[in-house]
Known about the structure:
globular, three-stranded antiparallel beta sheet, disordered C terminus, 700 residues, single chain, 23 helices, mainly alpha, 4% strand
Amino acid sequence: xxxxxxxxxxxxxxxxxxxxxxxxxxxxxxxxxxxxxxxxxxxxxxxxxxxxxxxxxxxxxxxxxxxxxxxxxxxxxxxxxxxxxxxxxxxxxxxxxxxxxxxxxxxxxxxxxxxxxxxxxxxxxxxxxxxxxxxxxxxxxxxxxxxxxxxxxxxxxxxxxxxxxxxxxxxxxxxxxxxxxxxxxxxxxxxxxxxxxxxxxxxxxxxxxxxxxxxxxxxxxxxxxxxxxxxxxxxxxxxxxxxxxxxxxxxxxxxxxxxxxxxxxxxxxxxxxxxxxxxxxxxxxxxxxxxxxxxxxxxxxxxxxxxxxxxxxxxxxxxxxxxxxxxxxxxxxxxxxxxxxxxxxxxxxxxxxxxxxxxxxxxxxxxxxxxxxxxxxxxxxxxxxxxxxxxxxxxxxxxxxxxxxxxxxxxxxxxxxxxxxxxxxxxxxxxxxxxxxxxxxxxxxxxxxxxxxxxxxxxxxxxxxxxxxxxxxxxxxxxxxxxxxxxxxxxxxxxxxxxxxxxxxxxxxxxxxxxxxxxxxxxxxxxxxxxxxxxxxxxxxxxxxxxxxxxxxxxxxxxxxxxxxxxxxxxxxxxxxxxxxxxxxxxxxxxxxxxxxxxxxxxxxxxxxxxxxxxxxxxxxxxxxxxxxxxxxxxxxxxxxxxxxxxxxxxxxxxxxxxxxxxxxxxxxxxxxxxxxxxxxxxxxxxxxxxxxxxxxxxx
Length: 700
């Protein structure tokens, strides 16, 4: 038996061995920087996998079944991937640790059955039991109902009305299509064609899923947006829209539709107009898929250029995994987003535009600036500017990518010794963007001057567009201005929880962070100063009592609190401001014993879980960046967090991360950005290194 002294010596040796494997701060930063540069695309950009849940495989398989392609090799590989995503209890979920999602599970079961999986198989029996226990197909959402109707499982009347005539309503009308969020709009238009023309392929005889029904479809419960409870009173928007839905269906039944032909033509042209300079309609999976069905319903054959273009764009979203002979699908691609954050992380790690490969990425990023008018012009008069998320999506620039791009350009120039500053005037005509440089070599002065001219011009346009897109409450949405008609969330079709695009604290703080890096702050004069002050008021008013902020685009309160702290400090809010202190205190309060932070997607549904979850490198990095902005660089919390990142870094400079920490639609769809585990920890480590400016290795 080992005595106490021997055991103590063994433990001490184990601790020493573990400490010996922890890289120094500079080594860790260099490792990750090298990894990112090694994974740069030849054209200059970065683009990691963007992982969604099982519905991407399921819905594609349902499309293939509708198109009579369910026996193809592609379908087999998709169904194999779908089956691998089934959980031990037989269900499918929105994210790995989530509870059963009935809509996802019903679509998965149906897709597997359509591709030849026998209902008597053990995994199918388990899936069926899990679905029935959770309420059956009766409780699926509107999109799932539409798929079931498309394949003859339920009557189309059970689905919400999606009338194409809405496209004819003028912009001043409360229910026009531009009051919807951009992502809802791009789905609504092709769906409305399908709802009107009913291109049903009835599979009820050869492949019925009646075994998943508890009650007949006519007795299924009413559709409702997650978190939206039935409101009382003589008049409610929910009651109004349900009455309107029933009325539209009666009109459809009586064939009273004098504007139908005109509306269908307008919808068709609307889609066609938005396909050039885009990776498919909206550059995201759902509207591309429904565009195929819409075009076929309109009479286009499979060889038509528009139909082929849609199929090709879906093909580009596929990832073929040779290791297990499967195919999985991404909801879209994220090159602009991944490139901007990578550039920021590299700049923090002292990899600037003087590095040829980094310079190439700047040129690529500048080539993606939006210069054409898009849907946003229906509510805003502004010169086109900004950036989108994907490779091509000219109609839909967004504030998030624009802010990140502006900051990436500024921080990369700073590593060249160039300062980019905005000097606001009373109007954009007399606002200037100036550059100063401390070290421009004669031999590359012309090349640098050309780069500075391009960046300055793009910066001015991006700032002007961002300022013009500010909402009346002082915040920003993602794609549109004042897209906050909450009554639209009562529409039966709105149960995807993304019908509108209102202001959010995390996004608003990111926008003003980009302003702050360019020298615009709460004391600035003119329009930009007013923009920043209004945003500060909005963010202050939306801080929670416990000090946290909600995170719309990342999971969740850790994401929101990080971004709000960074944004506020960037525009001159002092670190001793009560708002900053409360936010920092909340972050420190949810740090885990290991030094890490983590938060589950469940916090969107249950705020009692805010700041609680499996620790992740990305969320740890967000918390650290928030605390560093709040002046906590010497705090024990920050040092423990830094140690966690150093301790868990792999030898190749990466980190492991399984949980989903990205948000598509809260409570509906979540994302795993595969580079979040890499560039955000690098950004946190490098930012801390700059803050403390260590003379020796900083692993203490």
